[in-house]
Amino acid sequence: MKLVFNPSYSSANEYANIITGYLRENGCTVYSLDELFKSPQKFFSVKIVHLNWYESVGTLPSFILKLTKLLLLLAFGKKIVWTMHNKTPHTQKVLGLQKVLQYILVKASKRIVIHSKLSEELLNNKYKIRKDKIVHIPHPNYINVYGSIPGSSKKIADKLRLLFLGAVRPYKNIELLIDVVTQFENEVELHIAGNPITEEYKNELIGRAIGNNNISFELEFVENNRMIQLLSEYDLAILPYDIRSSLNSGTIILCFSYAKTIIAPEIGTVSDIEDKSYLFSYKYNDEEEHFKNLKQQVLKAIEAKKDNSEIFNDWGAKMYEVVKKGYGSNNVQQKFIELYHSLV
Prior knowledge:
By secondary structure, the chain is an alpha/beta fold. It has helices at residues 14-25, 33-38, 40-45, 60-75, 95-108, 117-127, 174-182, 199-208, 224-233, 250-257, 268-271, 287-307, 311-326, 329-341, and strands at residues 2-6, 29-31, 48-52, 79-84, 111-114, 134-136, 160-165, 188-193, 215-218, 236-238, 262-265, 280-282. The strands form two sheets. The protein has a six-stranded parallel sheet, with helices on both faces. A six-stranded parallel sheet has the order 9-8-7-10-11-12, with helices on both faces. The longest helix has 21 residues, at 287-307. The radius of gyration is 21 Å and the shape is globular.
């Protein structure tokens, strides 16, 4: 079977690499969208085009180009599959154009892949999508993708050690996180690691934390080995995402895949976890409530560590078993192959 899975490769996000690896293991020939449009032979040999994050555009010319390509695919009878990764695009720039593109994708796609049950509810409420058009496939885990789980290199510390890991973007509420951790200067250490969207945003975050000795930064692209080392050195990952746009989180799955549990709001990825006893989850309706509820979860984590200094190693091991069982390669790749075969 020949198909497009776009993007077919990413140096910064292993998600696409994992899935295209699964497909090739099952005998599929996988192209990127650029390859398709550069070769008439490939264009006419492919019937299925699977798009990820296609609705994310930053300029009017980018929108026009993507829309033109999408209309050409539809005109030539390509069967579009779209994965719903977010509620809405994270960036506010040309948000209206992004929403238009997302609406067209929702309506034009033969199948919509979702990675969380909350996605189906959103699709039904907003777009009135038929149930048979929606395909739930678990987000692939990252077990052994970046190597094996390293032994802990940290000394047991009295302070709660928190790690923010991932691309440093405004929708991840890092400013609010800094403000919360400032309340616990003698009880919490926070390390923020990831590549900032701009130099201005980097300086803004550093400026916000001036005078807080319990907050440190590693504001650059985090290499794979360093990423896993960081996860082994901290008690918990803390990821206070914006629930207005966030739906799924590969970073949360990554943390669980390397036996690290989290503090995070109940976005789709978190709400799918049936037993939330081994993580700190919360809900909120506005920024004030977010600050209050995030602070409450940090306080709970401080108290839990005081009672048992090894508790989060145990919790991380529990979450590792959750993603090993429910988000494993056999389950995920079988569902993708079944999806594509249903369209040919």
